[in-house]
């Protein structure tokens, strides 16, 4: 994932105090994060991001971009779309972020436990495979 930002500036007439507000096109976000526009539309269809619609054109805000970063980070860590959705919904409804932090701690603790189990399983498999390989090599040396 790159950190390059590809903003598309626009004038926002609804906020006269703001001279400019940054927004992003779907293709700019897709390029920035190395994902497809279809992926972004999928997250939109699941209600995880909500771009502004101007006709058929989607305009993503800084908030949408930040949420997309959280979505991709969560997905890369192995969390389901439902897990990410639950986390993001708490972000919106919990200004102190206490419930969100508790949820994240629970999910991370569970994920760490699952990965530790997988690591032990992998280590056991590697030990078994290395033992089999050593026996095969020894058998081949005897026969040669």
How does this model look, in words?
The protein is mainly α. It has two domains: 79 residues, Orthogonal Bundle (Multidrug-efflux Transporter Regulator, Chain: A, Domain 2); 51 residues. The protein is 63% helix and 8% strand. It is built from five helices and four strands; from the N terminus they run ββααββααα. The protein has a two-stranded antiparallel sheet with strand order 1-2. The N terminus is likely disordered.
SSE diagram, text form:
Elements: E1 8-10, E2 21-23, H1 26-33, H2 37-45, E3 52-54, E4 57-59, H3 62-76, H4 81-93, H5 98-143
Antiparallel strand pairs: 1-2, 3-4
Distance between the termini: 51 Å
Order of helices and strands: EEHHEEHHH
Structural class: mainly alpha
The level 1 CATH classification of the largest domain is Mainly Alpha
- What does the radius of gyration come to? 23 Å
Main pleated-sheet profile: 2 strands, antiparallel
Summed over residues and divided by their number, the pLDDT gives a mean of: 85
Instruction: Report the strand count.
Output: 4
What general form does the structure show?
elongated
Q: Can you tell me the CATH topology of the largest domain?
A: Multidrug-efflux Transporter Regulator, Chain: A, Domain 2
CATH-scheme architecture of the largest domain: Orthogonal Bundle
**Domain module tally:** 2
